[in-house]
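REQUEST FORM: STRUCTURE PREDICTION
Request ID: SP-0412
Submitted by: Lab K.M.
Chain count: 1
Length (residues): 222
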Amino acid sequence: MKKILSVAVHPDDETLGCGGALLKHKKNGDDIYWLIITSMYLEDGWTAEKIESRREEINQISDVYGFTAVHCLDFPSTRLDTIPMKNLISQISKIIQKVEPDLIYIPNRSDIHTDHQYAFRAIMSCTKTFRYPFIRKILMYECLSETEFSPALPADTFIPNVFVDITGFLEEKIKIMKIYRDEMGAFPFPRSEENISALAKNRGTVAGVEAAEAFVLLKEVI
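STATUS: Completed
RESULT:
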Protein backbone atom coordinates (compact mmCIF):
# COMPACT_ATOMS: atom_id res chain seq x y z
CA MET A 1 0.00 0.00 0.00
CA LYS A 2 1.29 3.42 -0.97
CA LYS A 3 0.35 6.96 -0.02
CA ILE A 4 -0.64 9.08 -3.01
CA LEU A 5 -0.99 12.87 -2.88
CA SER A 6 -2.79 14.76 -5.63
CA VAL A 7 -2.12 18.50 -5.55
CA ALA A 8 -4.84 20.64 -7.11
CA VAL A 9 -4.32 24.37 -7.43
CA HIS A 10 -8.07 24.64 -8.01
CA PRO A 11 -10.71 21.97 -7.39
CA ASP A 12 -11.16 20.02 -10.65
CA ASP A 13 -7.43 19.97 -11.48
CA GLU A 14 -7.13 16.64 -9.67
CA THR A 15 -9.85 15.04 -11.80
CA LEU A 16 -8.80 16.51 -15.13
CA GLY A 17 -5.13 15.73 -14.53
CA CYS A 18 -5.07 12.41 -12.71
CA GLY A 19 -8.64 11.41 -11.88
CA GLY A 20 -8.37 8.06 -13.60
CA ALA A 21 -5.05 7.32 -11.91
CA LEU A 22 -6.53 8.18 -8.51
CA LEU A 23 -9.45 5.81 -9.09
CA LYS A 24 -6.97 3.11 -10.07
CA HIS A 25 -4.83 3.76 -6.98
CA LYS A 26 -7.91 3.45 -4.79
CA LYS A 27 -8.92 0.18 -6.41
CA ASN A 28 -5.40 -1.16 -5.86
CA GLY A 29 -5.64 -0.41 -2.14
CA ASP A 30 -3.51 2.72 -1.97
CA ASP A 31 -4.34 5.61 0.38
CA ILE A 32 -5.14 8.72 -1.65
CA TYR A 33 -4.95 12.29 -0.35
CA TRP A 34 -6.13 15.59 -1.85
CA LEU A 35 -4.41 18.93 -1.34
CA ILE A 36 -6.37 21.95 -2.61
CA ILE A 37 -4.32 25.15 -2.66
CA THR A 38 -6.91 27.85 -3.40
CA SER A 39 -10.44 28.81 -2.39
CA MET A 40 -13.06 31.34 -3.51
CA TYR A 41 -13.81 34.56 -1.61
CA LEU A 42 -16.53 37.20 -1.79
CA GLU A 43 -13.98 40.00 -2.07
CA ASP A 44 -12.67 38.44 -5.28
CA GLY A 45 -16.07 38.60 -6.93
CA TRP A 46 -17.42 35.13 -6.16
CA THR A 47 -21.01 34.96 -4.97
CA ALA A 48 -22.01 33.39 -1.68
CA GLU A 49 -24.04 30.84 -3.64
CA LYS A 50 -21.04 29.86 -5.76
CA ILE A 51 -18.78 29.57 -2.71
CA GLU A 52 -21.28 27.31 -0.95
CA SER A 53 -21.82 25.29 -4.11
CA ARG A 54 -18.08 24.72 -4.42
CA ARG A 55 -17.88 23.53 -0.80
CA GLU A 56 -20.63 21.02 -1.51
CA GLU A 57 -18.88 19.88 -4.68
CA ILE A 58 -15.61 19.33 -2.82
CA ASN A 59 -17.38 17.25 -0.19
CA GLN A 60 -19.12 15.18 -2.84
CA ILE A 61 -15.93 14.69 -4.85
CA SER A 62 -14.08 13.61 -1.71
CA ASP A 63 -16.72 11.00 -0.94
CA VAL A 64 -16.71 9.60 -4.48
CA TYR A 65 -12.94 9.18 -4.60
CA GLY A 66 -12.75 7.99 -1.01
CA PHE A 67 -9.85 10.25 -0.05
CA THR A 68 -8.16 9.37 3.22
CA ALA A 69 -7.95 13.11 3.92
CA VAL A 70 -8.57 16.41 2.16
CA HIS A 71 -6.38 19.41 2.97
CA CYS A 72 -7.45 22.93 1.95
CA LEU A 73 -4.94 25.77 2.21
CA ASP A 74 -7.52 28.45 1.30
CA PHE A 75 -5.20 30.81 -0.56
CA PRO A 76 -7.16 33.19 -2.86
CA SER A 77 -7.96 31.77 -6.28
CA THR A 78 -6.57 33.75 -9.25
CA ARG A 79 -4.38 35.76 -6.88
CA LEU A 80 -1.79 33.19 -5.89
CA ASP A 81 1.02 35.36 -7.25
CA THR A 82 0.19 37.99 -4.61
CA ILE A 83 1.11 35.55 -1.82
CA PRO A 84 4.73 35.58 -0.60
CA MET A 85 6.38 32.45 -1.95
CA LYS A 86 7.74 31.55 1.49
CA ASN A 87 4.19 31.47 2.89
CA LEU A 88 3.00 29.18 0.14
CA ILE A 89 5.99 26.87 0.53
CA SER A 90 5.54 26.75 4.29
CA GLN A 91 1.88 25.69 4.11
CA ILE A 92 2.41 23.13 1.37
CA SER A 93 5.39 21.72 3.24
CA LYS A 94 3.30 21.16 6.38
CA ILE A 95 0.83 19.02 4.45
CA ILE A 96 3.51 17.01 2.67
CA GLN A 97 5.29 16.37 5.96
CA LYS A 98 1.99 15.28 7.50
CA VAL A 99 0.96 12.94 4.69
CA GLU A 100 4.44 11.62 3.82
CA PRO A 101 3.38 10.54 0.32
CA ASP A 102 5.29 8.02 -1.78
CA LEU A 103 3.95 9.58 -4.99
CA ILE A 104 2.87 13.14 -5.72
CA TYR A 105 0.83 14.33 -8.71
CA ILE A 106 1.42 18.01 -9.42
CA PRO A 107 0.27 20.57 -12.06
CA ASN A 108 2.22 21.36 -15.19
CA ARG A 109 4.79 24.12 -14.72
CA SER A 110 3.93 25.95 -17.95
CA ASP A 111 0.11 25.96 -17.75
CA ILE A 112 -1.33 29.23 -18.96
CA HIS A 113 -2.97 29.93 -15.58
CA THR A 114 -0.52 31.91 -13.44
CA ASP A 115 -1.83 30.17 -10.30
CA HIS A 116 -0.55 26.87 -11.71
CA GLN A 117 2.84 28.33 -12.59
CA TYR A 118 3.30 29.89 -9.18
CA ALA A 119 2.10 26.81 -7.33
CA PHE A 120 4.45 24.56 -9.28
CA ARG A 121 7.47 26.48 -8.04
CA ALA A 122 6.29 26.24 -4.45
CA ILE A 123 5.45 22.53 -4.67
CA MET A 124 8.83 21.64 -6.15
CA SER A 125 10.51 23.47 -3.28
CA CYS A 126 8.77 20.95 -1.01
CA THR A 127 10.23 17.87 -2.67
CA LYS A 128 13.92 18.09 -1.81
CA THR A 129 15.14 14.58 -1.07
CA PHE A 130 17.09 15.50 2.06
CA ARG A 131 13.99 17.06 3.65
CA TYR A 132 11.30 14.80 2.19
CA PRO A 133 13.02 11.39 1.82
CA PHE A 134 9.68 9.54 1.70
CA ILE A 135 8.82 10.97 -1.75
CA ARG A 136 9.77 8.30 -4.28
CA LYS A 137 8.11 9.66 -7.41
CA ILE A 138 6.80 12.99 -8.76
CA LEU A 139 4.52 13.08 -11.80
CA MET A 140 3.43 16.29 -13.53
CA TYR A 141 -0.04 16.17 -15.07
CA GLU A 142 -1.74 18.02 -17.90
CA CYS A 143 -4.93 19.99 -17.32
CA LEU A 144 -7.44 20.66 -20.11
CA SER A 145 -8.02 24.39 -20.78
CA GLU A 146 -4.64 25.22 -19.21
CA THR A 147 -1.85 23.01 -20.55
CA GLU A 148 -2.81 23.07 -24.22
CA PHE A 149 -2.93 26.89 -24.25
CA SER A 150 0.68 27.32 -23.16
CA PRO A 151 2.98 29.14 -25.62
CA ALA A 152 4.11 26.94 -28.51
CA LEU A 153 7.72 27.07 -27.37
CA PRO A 154 9.99 24.07 -26.66
CA ALA A 155 10.49 25.05 -23.01
CA ASP A 156 6.74 25.26 -22.43
CA THR A 157 5.68 22.11 -24.27
CA PHE A 158 4.12 19.26 -22.30
CA ILE A 159 5.93 16.11 -23.49
CA PRO A 160 4.67 13.08 -21.54
CA ASN A 161 6.89 10.11 -20.84
CA VAL A 162 4.65 8.19 -18.42
CA PHE A 163 1.22 6.82 -19.27
CA VAL A 164 -1.29 5.36 -16.83
CA ASP A 165 -3.81 2.96 -18.31
CA ILE A 166 -7.24 4.18 -17.18
CA THR A 167 -9.25 1.79 -19.32
CA GLY A 168 -12.28 1.00 -17.20
CA PHE A 169 -11.98 4.26 -15.25
CA LEU A 170 -12.66 6.86 -17.94
CA GLU A 171 -16.44 6.88 -17.59
CA GLU A 172 -16.16 7.32 -13.81
CA LYS A 173 -13.65 10.15 -14.28
CA ILE A 174 -16.08 11.98 -16.58
CA LYS A 175 -18.95 11.37 -14.16
CA ILE A 176 -16.90 12.91 -11.36
CA MET A 177 -16.02 15.92 -13.52
CA LYS A 178 -19.72 16.55 -14.08
CA ILE A 179 -20.09 17.18 -10.34
CA TYR A 180 -18.31 20.46 -11.04
CA ARG A 181 -21.40 21.90 -12.65
CA ASP A 182 -19.92 25.24 -13.73
CA GLU A 183 -16.62 23.81 -15.00
CA MET A 184 -17.98 21.65 -17.81
CA GLY A 185 -19.29 22.98 -21.11
CA ALA A 186 -20.62 21.88 -24.48
CA PHE A 187 -18.12 20.69 -27.09
CA PRO A 188 -15.86 22.21 -28.43
CA PHE A 189 -15.34 23.75 -24.98
CA PRO A 190 -12.04 22.29 -23.67
CA ARG A 191 -13.61 20.87 -20.50
CA SER A 192 -16.36 18.96 -22.28
CA GLU A 193 -17.20 15.29 -21.99
CA GLU A 194 -16.18 14.74 -25.61
CA ASN A 195 -12.79 16.42 -25.20
CA ILE A 196 -11.93 14.67 -21.93
CA SER A 197 -12.72 11.37 -23.62
CA ALA A 198 -10.81 12.31 -26.78
CA LEU A 199 -7.66 13.24 -24.86
CA ALA A 200 -7.77 10.01 -22.85
CA LYS A 201 -8.19 7.94 -26.01
CA ASN A 202 -5.44 9.87 -27.80
CA ARG A 203 -3.05 9.29 -24.90
CA GLY A 204 -4.19 5.68 -24.88
CA THR A 205 -3.14 5.16 -28.50
CA VAL A 206 0.40 6.20 -27.57
CA ALA A 207 0.45 3.64 -24.75
CA GLY A 208 -1.35 0.93 -26.69
CA VAL A 209 -4.42 0.91 -24.47
CA GLU A 210 -7.99 2.14 -24.84
CA ALA A 211 -7.61 5.16 -22.52
CA ALA A 212 -4.75 6.71 -20.61
CA GLU A 213 -3.61 9.74 -18.65
CA ALA A 214 -0.25 11.22 -19.54
CA PHE A 215 2.42 12.59 -17.21
CA VAL A 216 5.94 13.94 -17.17
CA LEU A 217 8.21 12.11 -14.75
CA LEU A 218 10.09 14.71 -12.71
CA LYS A 219 11.72 12.39 -10.19
CA GLU A 220 11.81 8.71 -9.35
CA VAL A 221 13.83 6.97 -6.68
CA ILE A 222 14.08 3.23 -7.32
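NOTES: The chain has one domain: 3-220.
Reviewed by: T.R.
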